[in-house]
Design a protein that fits this description.
The chain is 46% helix and 19% strand. The protein is α/β, with parallel strands linked by helices. The longest helix has 30 residues.
Length: 333
């Protein structure tokens, strides 16, 4: 009898010790991040684009800084919505981050009738990488030399839909720049969507389309070769690479300011210490001369926004594009 009692007491004590040990493990695990488990850097666009290229610039040094692999995973579709939805549903444990853009995290929520994530509520802002102003260009043989020329000509052709403007697709930043100009100026244009910037810019160079907005990465070489004429830039300040080209605001549309931005987000609920560490390491990488030069080669202005500033900026962007998209009556399915 005494032996059985001793055995029971011994088992009970062991259970308490084991239970206490298991109960403590989650707290230890939560404090140990990263543990060596790979971090997935979700890119919601196909390989080769700006978001993918930037992710690959950031991923390797970020993995070295954190002491754990950072693996790129491309999940393109619906203007960044497919991959963003997958990232939104990932565990909020610091092992999934997302390359978010002006499209996926400010435009799509108003553009698509159904979206399986909320660009604000489904994510935690981590870091703004930079913003790339767009350039309004026309063919070199075009008679239009200023923004006033473009607006006057499009207004004169209002019965035919105005001047034609190419873009790499409905809902892309070049398309939205056109709609913002139409919204602010009250002048109509005809949007001509293409499947990518390559064929779009070729038709503008060839004179089949009157004009287009795009990044200096796309239109810069054609400006340098003399095939395209820059009219104005969408940012609030002139570009270092095009110092003689006025901003759209300077050219008469006061308050016009737009950039095709790139940022990093994590699933909502990701612990603040993890977000803070990710932000700090990514900002160190962005501040290096090599990455600064790389960003500028993409036509981007590097950013120093805090996560809170990125969140406030993103909210303002969602509001702005909701107004523009509603006024233009644009929808994508």
């Amino acid at each position: 009898m005494q032996r059985r009692t001793l055995i029971h007491r011994s088992l009970a004590a062991s259970a308490l010790l084991l239970g206490g040990s298991f109960a403590a493990q989650p707290a230890v695990a939560q404090g140990a991040w990263p543990t060596g488990k790979p971090i997935t850097y979700m890119v919601p666009f196909p390989p080769g684009g700006n978001t993918d290229t930037l992710a690959r610039v950031i991923a390797q040094p970020l993995g070295q800084a954190l002491g754990t692999p950072v693996v790129i995973e491309n999940k393109g579709g619906a203007g960044g919505s497919v991959g963003s939805g997958l990232a939104a549903r990932a565990p909020a444990d610091g092992y999934t981050i997302l390359g978010g853009t002006i499209s996926s995290h400010s435009i799509n929520v108003s553009l698509y009738s159904k979206l399986d994530y909320d660009p604000i509520k489904s994510f935690t802002p981590v870091a703004m990488l930079g913003s790339g102003p767009l350039v309004l260009v026309v063919p070199s043989a075009s008679p239009y030399k200023t923004l006033d020329d473009v607006l006057a000509a499009s207004k004169a052709k209002a019965g035919a839909g105005g001047l034609s403007s190419a873009s790499p697709g409905t809902g892309t930043s070049p398309h939205m720049a056109l709609e913002l100009l139409a919204y602010q100026s009250g002048v109509k244009f005809t949007h001509v969507p293409y499947k990518g910037s390559g064929p779009a810019v070729q038709d503008v160079v060839g004179g089949q389309v009157d004009m287009m907005f795009d990044t200096t990465l796309i239109v810069g070489p054609h400006i340098q070769s003399g095939k395209l004429r820059p009219i104005a830039v969408t940012s609030s300040r002139r570009l270092e690479s095009l110092p003689d080209v006025p901003t759209i605001a300077e050219a008469g549309q006061k308050g016009f300011d737009m950039g095709s931005w790139q940022a990093v987000f994590a699933p909502a609920g990701t612990p603040k210490p993890i977000v803070d560490r990710l932000h700090a390491e990514i900002m160190k990488i962005v501040a290096t001369p090599e990455v600064q030069a790389r960003l500028k080669s993409f036509g981007m202005v590097p950013s120093t926004m805090t996560p809170a500033e990125l969140g406030a900026y993103q909210q303002a962007e969602v509001t702005k594009w909701a107004q523009v998209i509603k006024a233009a009556g644009i929808k994508a399915e």
